[in-house]
Amino acid sequence: MAIDQTTSSDLLTVIAIAILAYAGANISHEIIGHCGTMALLGGKCSYISTTYIRTTPELPLEWKFRIDAFAGSAANWLVALLCLRLLRAWRSASPALRFFLWLSTCVNLFLPSTYLLVSPAVRFGDWYSITIGLSHPFFWRSGMTVAGTLLCCLSFRLCSSELIKLIGVEAKQARSTAWSLVVPAYLAGGIVSIAAALFGPLPLKWALFISGSMFGVTFLLLLLPLRIRVRKIHTQDFFVVPRSVGWLVVGILVASAFVFVLGPGFSL
């Protein structure tokens, strides 16, 4: 029993970290990206939730509107780069913090990159809105799809490389360790996104469509463990995220605020 405790990451702590990473990605996109840019453009967000933002004044389909639409994804990319920089700088940090930085990097990369790939094709979302009113919209949307595909590939390679560094290429049971971290994080992040949306202002159909898309845009997370080669000779110890009361408390507080405060939304 003692061996299992030292070679397995604590599931609740992994879930708490995932909630923080996914909630952070949503806040980065909606509040820092869209609302922050709106403030710089001379307007404001008069209503904020996890799935819907109302701006005052409403921007016409011109350059300001397109800048604000782009800003959500841009904020995610910037947060991803910041987390990646910290992850590489803090190699001696605790496993929990390093896992949080790695997961935040990946979620903030996959979300906007997959969004860029899919949005023009399904004719919905920020990237599709950017092309409305432009001349030759088909070519703009095709270019976005190609760019999104390339960014998804680059993001996948980067996240898989950092996952291998995080766990250790020679670590014992490296692939199973990766699965034990990635799967619960993916499920917890998607579930908390849907839970928050169910309290939001949108009709149920749209709330489930928008929030459920978090499962889609971060689906590449589930493929990352496949990049880890199974080795017979191990020279490194297990990577373990231990039980942490601090992460659990913060995770519970953030989950509560994200679902019951930011989910329903509030006026400014």
Number of helices: 9
How much helicity do the residues have? Answer: 55-70%
Distance between the termini: 52 Å
Dominant shape: globular
Estimate the mean pLDDT confidence.
91
- By oligomeric state, this entry counts as single chain
* N to C succession of SSEs: HHEEHHHHHHHE
Cα radius of gyration in angstroms: 19 Å
Largest beta sheet: strand ordering:
2-1-3
Q: Could you tell me the strand content as a percent range?
A: under 5%
Task: Pick out the low-confidence regions.
Answer: 1-5
Number of strands: 3
Secondary-structure content class: mainly alpha
Tell me the major beta sheet.
3 strands, antiparallel
Describe this structure in words.
This protein has 268 residues and is mainly α. Helix content is 69%, strand content 4%. Strands 2-1-3 form a three-stranded antiparallel beta sheet, with helices on one face.
Short description:
By secondary structure, this protein is mainly α.
Topology, please?
Blueprint: H1 2-7, H2 11-40, E1 44-48, E2 53-56, H3 63-89, H4 95-122, H5 126-131, H6 137-167, H7 174-198, H8 204-217, H9 245-262, E3 266-267
Antiparallel strand pairs: 1-2, 1-3
Tag the structure with descriptive keywords.
268 residues, mainly alpha, 3-stranded antiparallel β-sheet, 9 helices, 69% helix, globular, disordered N terminus
